[in-house]
Amino acid sequence: MDFSQYVKGNTLSLISCDTINISELVSFLQNNPNIRPAAKWYVLISG
Q1: Measured CA angle at 16 (ends 47, 1), to 5 deg
Q2: Are 6 and 16 in contact (CB under 8 A)?
Q3: What is the pTM of this model?
Q4: In this predicted model, what pLDDT tens digit does every residue of 4-45 receive, in sequence order?
Q5: For the residues of the chain, what is the DSSP string, one character each?
Q6: Distant-in-sequence, close-in-space partners of 41: CB < 8 Å, separation ≥ 6
Q7: Long-range own/partner contacts, residues 11-16 (CB < 8 A, 24 or more apart)
């Protein structure tokens, strides 16, 4: 997944993202230390 499309400035906003691979997200954040996640995390788990 290309998380860079969800970056504005130095903030990562995944509101419009349907599903997230957590391993890929962690890797992206580790490789881009200047990016910070949005202040609040909302998680919807469906199964």
Answers
A1: 80
A2: yes
A3: 0.65
A4: 888 888 888 777 677 788 888 889 889 988 887 665 555 555
A5: --GGGGEETTEE--TT-S---HHHHHHHHHH-TT-EE-S--------
A6: none
A7: 11/35, 11/36, 11/37, 11/38, 12/36, 12/37, 12/38, 13/38, 14/38
Contact 21, 2 (CB under 8 A): no
Per the CB < 8 A criterion, the answer to whether 44 and 18 are in contact is no
Rg over alpha carbons for the chain, rounded to the nearest Å, is 11
Tokens of 47: 């199964």
